[in-house]
Design brief:
alpha/beta; globular; eight-stranded parallel β-barrel; TIM Barrel; 10 helices
Length: 253
């Protein structure tokens, strides 16, 4: 059995870590470099850094923030936010990212995923898929973009399949409905995406307890991502891993 990866997420706006509910009402939670150093020392397996204001405001992720975070890490770093071209992805990789995630730009121009995979390899390309419950798509979930402000009508499972076929090596799956709610991951969403693709899935949105993470893995996730429970010091990563191990989950010590 492969170990489940535990991944803290840093949502960054204007160089500061923020957190909200359903991508709105963002509140400051700390300095990206300081939090990165803390999570790495506690045993985080990877780190995700997302510039949550990059796409809505027409900006791109600040390379300075990526460099300062990279200086604190000896674990893989995924960076997203405003990645709309091969050139921008290359800048982020050169600044210290190991992988880049694409969301809105890939929906608007699907060939971007193939261009990135051709240039950097599928292992460097993460499809960030934000999904919300909807009655129209067959799967019951549609893709939302621009930090959740725009619904697309695109079936989430079909989009996941297309992304993987184009070269995405991993899916960062966020439930818009659960984000920041602490109600647990959207298990039917994870199950539906798991049934459609064979690449690793990172579950995101709604984590509050170790039990929520176990449920996500049982639903088909390969990794679990969380923010608030780490930022607000409810759980240190090493304590969380100890509890997950007690619950029967294989984790990296």
């Amino acid at each position: 059995m492969l170990s489940v990866r535990i991944i803290p997420c840093l949502d960054v706006r204007d160089g500061c870590v923020v957190k909200g509910v359903r991508f709105q009402n963002l509140r400051e939670s700390g300095d990206p470099a300081e939090l990165s150093a803390r999570y790495a020392s506690e045993g985080a397996d990877e780190l995700v850094l997302l510039d949550v204001s990059a796409t809505p405001e027409g900006r791109q992720t600040a390379l300075h923030t990526v460099r300062t975070v990279r200086n604190e890490l000896n674990i893989p770093l995924t960076v997203g936010g405003g990645v709309s071209s091969v050139e921008r992805a290359r800048d982020l990789l050169e600044a210290g990212a190991d992988k880049v995630s694409v969301n809105t730009a890939a929906v608007e121009r699907p060939e971007l995923v193939r261009e990135l995979a051709d240039q950097f390899g599928t292992q460097c390309v993460v499809l960030a898929l934000d999904a919300a419950g909807a009655p129209e798509p067959e799967s019951g979930y549609e893709v939302v973009v621009r930090s959740g402000t725009q619904r697309t009508g695109i079936d989430a499972v079909e989009w996941a399949r297309r992304g993987v076929e184009s070269g995405a090596g991993e899916i960062l799956l966020t439930s818009f409905d659960r984000d920041g709610t602490r109600a647990g991951y959207d298990l039917p969403l994870i199950q539906r995406i798991r049934g459609g693709v064979d690449v690793p899935i990172i579950a995101s949105g709604g984590a509050s307890t170790p039990e929520h993470m176990v449920e996500a893995v049982e639903a088909g996730a390969d990794a679990v991502l969380a923010a608030s429970i780490f930022h607000e010091s409810e759980w240190a990563v090493f304590d969380l891993k100890e509890r997950l191990a007690e619950l029967g989950m294989e984790v990296r010590r």
